[in-house]
Amino acid sequence: MSRRTAQTYGRAADASTIRGAGLSLMIAAALTVTACTPTPASSADQPTVAPSPSVSPQATATVDPAVAATTSAVESTLRTLIAGNPKPDRETLRAALVSAGIPNANVEVSVSSTPTGLDVDAMEAAALTGESCVMGQIRDGGVVVTVLPVLATGKCFVGDAR
């Protein structure tokens, strides 16, 4: 056997030994991690806790009728508006909410285009009702409406949206 052949086989044998050692370490690590993982206990091993009869969940939240009416008006107005135009401009959105019976002074509407003239991804409108803001968002042809508290400024939006 030539020296070159011996070196070639020796390197191959060294590489094989290293691969085998690496594989052994990976298996040992996997077994160690698996051994440390708790097994799911059967339901028979877990104690059963009965609910206390004196504790009952409060499922009845009172909703201000004015907020409920405004929420309904905002949602139906936005849905009707986007059925005809999925990307209305700011003034069209404001006019639709005012014509739905929301006072103009209580309506806030976000901008409909960026400073560079591009359409925005989403339009938002807010209707101030008492201590609540009914927030409506138009995005990708869909409408989402939620109720949030009025900000300390007495407005629904942060900043000036001219």
Structure description:
The chain has 162 residues and is α+β, with helices and mostly antiparallel strands. Helix content is 40%, strand content 17%. It contains 3 helices and 4 strands. The chain has a 4-stranded antiparallel beta sheet, with helices on one face. Strand 2 and strand 3 form a beta hairpin. The relative contact order is 0.10.
**Whole-number mean pLDDT:** 77
Order of helices and strands: HHHEEEE
What portion of residues belong to β-strands?
15-25%
Tell me the number of strands. Answer: 4
Q: So how many helices?
A: 3
Sheet with most strands: 4 strands, antiparallel
Structural class: alpha+beta
Helix coverage percent: 25-40%
In the sheet with the most strands, the strands line up as 1-2-3-4
Radius of gyration: 33 Å
For the terminal residues, how far apart are their CA atoms?
Answer: 88 Å
Low-confidence stretches: 49-60
Structure characteristics:
about 160 residues, alpha+beta, 4-stranded antiparallel beta sheet
Provide a compact summary of the structure.
This protein is an alpha+beta fold.
Secondary structure layout:
Layout: H1 3-36, H2 65-84, H3 90-99, E1 107-109, E2 122-129, E3 132-139, E4 142-149
Antiparallel strand pairs: 1-2, 2-3, 3-4
